[in-house]
Amino acid sequence: MTDTPETVDMAAPPFNPESPPELKTAQVFNAPEAPTLAALKGKVVVLVAFQMLCPGSQRHALPQAERLARTFSSDEVAVLGLHMVFENHEDMTPSLLEPFLKEERISIPVVVDKPNGSGAPQTMQAYGMHGTPTLLIFDRQGRLRRHYLGAVDDARLGAEIMALALEPPNAAREVSLAIEQRLAAALLDPRADHHHDGECCGGEHAHDHEHGPGCDHKH
Predict the structure, then answer these.
(1) Which range of residues forms the domain containing residue 123?
(2) pTM (two decimals)
(3) Is the previous residue joined to 133 through a cis bond, with omega within 30 degrees of 0?
(4) Under 8 Å between Cβ of 97 and 89
(5) Is there a contact between 142 and 155 (Cβ–Cβ < 8 Å)?
(6) Distance CA 100, CA 163 (A)
(7) CATH code, domain carrying 193
(8) Alpha-carbon span 67 to 62, nearest angstrom
(9) Count of the separate structural domains present in the chain
(10) Is 13 part of any domain?
């Protein structure tokens, strides 16, 4: 399966999961200031990109994010929401997001992806995200280690987060490689626990979710 051809910015540097770009945000809820990846280095960061009217975001991703925030110490694992609106902009404005978060009892910090005209917002473009819900996981060194589109099983996600939490903050690449190899041996194929269920919003589901040894990601 091939993705629909996209316009490529030839001036943009190639995506490097070892040094991913900073989040581009326009507004923040549930926090005094917008969290940044730079400020959160030293913690495992779980970023849930969602749209308030996306069924998969409502039914799975946001409730799961709240469960993660209650399960893991905020000193070790930071759980964030990214409201990433790329469609029906007038129905998902920040002024509508605020009461939605209160009604759904979403307490995690939520940032609004910085708009980019009428197209995909800036963080979505920078990370090559294809839709919502999308889950990104960064290790303690700020490296992107996971990029999922759609629902991820709680047990798998918890195991992956715990493995990254056990990595030393200054872990050498060989240590990260060994942990990834142990995860690959212990957990079944992620596609068995990774479902779209017709509730994803956005483009092709052929986005590569393979997480081979080490921190290499194919974007």
Answers:
(1) 42-202
(2) 0.84
(3) yes
(4) no
(5) no
(6) 33
(7) 3.40.30.10
(8) 9
(9) 1
(10) no
- The count of residues in the chain is 219
- Number of Cβ atoms within 10 Å of the Cβ of 133: 33
Pairwise CA distance, residues 211 & 217, whole Å: 6
**Residue 218 belongs to a domain:** no
Q: What is the CA radius of gyration of the chain?
A: 16
The 3 state secondary structure assigned to 198-218 is CCCEECCCCCCCCCCCCCCCC
SS3 55: helix
List of residues 6+ apart from 9 with CB closer than 8 A: none
Answer whether residue 1 is part of any domain.
no
Strands (E), 57-108: 77-83
The pLDDT tens digits along the chain (219 residues) read 333 334 445 456 688 999 999 999 999 999 999 999 999 999 999 999 999 999 999 999 999 999 999 999 999 999 999 999 998 888 999 999 999 999 999 999 999 999 988 789 999 999 999 999 999 999 999 999 999 999 999 999 999 999 999 999 999 989 999 999 999 999 987 665 555 555 778 755 433 333 433 333 433
Let me know if residue 37 belongs to a domain: no
Instruction: Evaluate whether 85 touches 51 at the Cβ level (below 8 Å).
Output: yes
Q: How far apart are CA 180 and CA 36, in angstroms?
A: 25
Tokens of 169: 């903050």
User: Angle CA(177)–CA(180)–CA(186) in degrees, nearest 5?
Assistant: 145
